[in-house]
Amino acid sequence: MERQPHDLPKDPYSGGSNRPLPPRGFPVSEYEHRLNRAQRLMNEQGIAALLLTTEPEIRYFSGFLTQFWQSPTRPWFMVVPFWGKPIAVIPEIGAAVMAATWLDDIRTWPSPEPEDDGISLLTWTLLEVAGRTGRVGLPMGPETHLRMPLADFETLRAKTSGIELVDATPIIRALRLIKSETEIAKIAAMCDIVSDAFAALPHLIAPGDMEEAVFRTFKIELLRRGADDVPYLVGGTGPGGYEDIISPPASRPLQAGDVLMLDTGSVFDGYYCDFDRNFAIGHATDVTRRAYDTLYRATEAGLRAAQPGATCADLFATMWRELSSGSESGTSTGRLGHGLGMQLTEWPSLTPADQTVLQPGMVITLEPGLNIGPDRMMVHEENIVIRDSGAELLTRRAPIELPIIGA
Amino acid sequence: MERQPHDLPKDPYSGGSNRPLPPRGFPVSEYEHRLNRAQRLMNEQGIAALLLTTEPEIRYFSGFLTQFWQSPTRPWFMVVPFWGKPIAVIPEIGAAVMAATWLDDIRTWPSPEPEDDGISLLTWTLLEVAGRTGRVGLPMGPETHLRMPLADFETLRAKTSGIELVDATPIIRALRLIKSETEIAKIAAMCDIVSDAFAALPHLIAPGDMEEAVFRTFKIELLRRGADDVPYLVGGTGPGGYEDIISPPASRPLQAGDVLMLDTGSVFDGYYCDFDRNFAIGHATDVTRRAYDTLYRATEAGLRAAQPGATCADLFATMWRELSSGSESGTSTGRLGHGLGMQLTEWPSLTPADQTVLQPGMVITLEPGLNIGPDRMMVHEENIVIRDSGAELLTRRAPIELPIIGA
Questions:
Q1: pTM across the whole model
Q2: Which residues of chain A neighbour B140 with C-beta distances below 8 Å?
Q3: How far is B157 from chain A (nearest CA, A)?
Q4: What is residue A13's predicted lDDT score, i.e. its pLDDT?
């Protein structure tokens, strides 16, 4: 009988932790705390209810965790009242899973029902909580969207025309920016597993392997080591650098002189890591080594600068200075890092314009990039949590020298 | 050196095909055909441009395939003009990948830029294509949503106030309902791989295994056999049936008398399968066997009834009759099947209300369910394509008798 190994023995390559995984889920007290913080902010702004339609937001207040969100067919709603527990307004198919959360008030309808896919039920619920003329908060700002048909939203607006809709992005953002220790432990566990898998990778692949096979091997390795899922694995290979950093794998073999980069957002219990590692295939040129070194130093500068009280713009400036100090030219993919947690990327952004002040409990990436010649680049990425004393690495720091595969 | 097997030898358990995988991507002629069909419908309705914001729609017209959509930070836009190729209005970070598609007109801005995240660029593009008072189609109907911040959409509306927005769901739906042979081949390849993996599963797991480990083993098996990704794997176990069908795995061992169900939406080259299989652990009671048999017969009835010209409501009625013919009670999770393709679930739905007429080229699931006692259920699922001559199975038909693991 052929069997897959579920539980790996201590890994010879990990050099590392093999810490036990943290428990799944959260104590009810964590949801109560989230709700209390939300309701305090709602109260300050005279908001009677929050209306939520997206996976991370509904999960944040309930613990509702399912891959069923992959199906775009049915809308899911949550109403967070200014007092009392959140109310789930959801398709019947989710009732059993939602009933296993800490919520009490679960209202369902038999979806899909295109003529009225929960809109009447949601209307009644909103009017009950907010009254005919209350103020309702809905995320409308950067990095949010409305996950329901726009025509249904218009119907809802017409049926609740006395209700004033205001942007709830600042409330949701303020809550989710600061992670609890339980949340941090999940992200740290994911970073640990991926750090181990990156350490093992040189033993699993070799020059000549197709890029597609390398991606597949790495994805399997992540699952074997305890990732629940690998929703995000991108990367690139190319002589001395890669052309872009969001591609699926190509039908191209790893060749001597290539740089291989893999960047993964893997998930443990609904929480992401998001970091990459670079490898040289066979050998690395001086240009490649120098680029790696510059990126390493930019990250070190970022690690020192990521102190409570500094702004995201400060952190950007510090890293950018390091990237531009030599003959090289920095590249930013639009920013030099970002938040992460329940999603692969979250607020804030490390850009010149983002004045978000770093606070203990924020989890962010440091992601400096360099242009190499006209059409190649190299990117480094680490994940950190901001502590009172500064940055704490959640990832195992990338090697100080570019690792070589098949030397 | 430990290495993962990338290419499996002929599988002793598959009993099956091991057909070579179809080539990735599409010929340009396929995109031209999609565009021509869209522009014909736009012309009929006096629509000057389509505005698209969601992954499947943008990929449908361009071939743009990346997991970068996992990041909610940046909006992505496509404008399909009434004449000429689609125009991509996208963050700079996607320029290289988009440039590798058949599109010529790629307009980028340095995102994230919360103050103006592509809205000015999109405004100019819309006004250029549709004029100040043209009619623009935007998907607003069932199973669609708008993937951009609502506040940015309001800004766009204000800047293009002369433009009339109309619902483009009927156009997008009409196009995507009918799959090309190239699309069908990708779905069929995915169904083949998953059929093989389901056939192998009894050799990979055993009574006593934790549900979490079973999920992990199956996911790894799917990747080993050629799935690009497994974005959806849900299921359940329980004595004689399971409580719900959208759960992540539990920390519970497989026990004699359990029914195990696994349901996966796995992906090859951006195309999904969506089907499940049931297994008894150790032994099955007569009640369990009878339920399995009823579901098997309901699916057979569905396979016979899935003829061009029949409606989705007809197909629902045929299967429902079979489910209700004995002492058992059918359950529908809201419907008895649905479309699939670029997404795990797509239009249409097998419900009493859905009058969609089945046509050759439609790919759908048949998904009958039964209640077993007060709080258990069993669900079967197959994937088919409608042909001139009737239903063609894309999945390898489930065994006529419930397979037993660890008998």
A1: 0.95
A2: 149-151, 154
A3: 14
A4: 44
